[in-house]
Amino acid sequence: MRQARYFIVFGTLAITALLAQGCATKSGAGTGHERMAQEERVGEPAIKEISPSDLGVATSRTSPSMRTELSARNATGLTVGALMDILFDFDRDSIRVDALPVVEANARRLKEDGVTRVLLEGRGDEVGTSAYNIVLGERRAKNVKSYLQQLGLSVDLKTTSYGKDRPLCFQHTNDCMQKNRSVHFVVKE
């Protein structure tokens, strides 16, 4: 009987010690190697969509005089028919289903008009860092370029990204931010 109590007490202590060691490891008090691995991880801060009630709080880095200059620069290229911008969802680079017919219509227009060179300008909205939006805009432009090539458009297609630094629209509204989440066609002759 005494031996049975000894085994129960010893078994309980052993299980408690194992559980305590497991909890300490998960809380970061484990080995130095585990702590170093956790410290080496660099998490990208989450991008949050601005709610409509907070849109007035967002500030633009673009002064009124710079807006005029950017609008003039954004209007570069030849006007060829009605080439429409390709719109993207928030924080996404894949072409939306409703944007596919727009890309196809632009491709037909470029073929009909005999255009030989086009610049695809990728953009992002004002949410997130400039660096993040530059990369996102470039991925958007490259996806549109890839789809145009799949459609058989044999035009010299170049891509660039302005991220959030050369917006097409300057108001702090959802509609305006949607216009900036786009790929803009600029015909170069």
How would you briefly describe this protein structure?
The chain is of the alpha+beta class and 189 residues long.
Can you offer a commentary on this structure?
The chain has 189 residues and is of the alpha+beta class. The chain folds into 2 domains: 39 residues; 136 residues, 60s Ribosomal Protein L30, Chain: A (2-Layer Sandwich). It has 6 helices and 4 strands, in the order H-H-H-E-H-E-H-E-H-E. The chain has a 4-stranded mixed beta sheet. The longest helix is centred in the N-terminal third of the chain and has 28 residues. It is globular and about 85 Å long.
Top keywords for this entry?
189 residues; alpha+beta; 2 domains; 4-stranded mixed β-sheet; 4 strands
**Strands of the largest sheet, in order across it?**
1-4-2-3
Gyration radius (Cα, Å) is: 27 Å
End-to-end CA span: 98 Å
Largest sheet: 4 strands, mixed
- Domain count: the total is 2
Question: What is the assigned CATH homologous superfamily of the largest domain?
Answer: OmpA-like domain
Remind me, CATH topology of the largest domain? 60s Ribosomal Protein L30, Chain: A
Secondary-structure content class: alpha+beta
Spans where pLDDT lies below 50 across 5 or more residues: 23-44, 46-60, 72-80
Strand composition percent: 5-15%
Helical stretch count?
Answer: 6
How does the overall form come out from the CA principal axes? globular
Work out the helicity level. 40-55%
Mean pLDDT: 75
* Name of the level-1 CATH class of the largest domain: Alpha Beta
The succession of helices and strands, N to C, reads HHHEHEHEHE
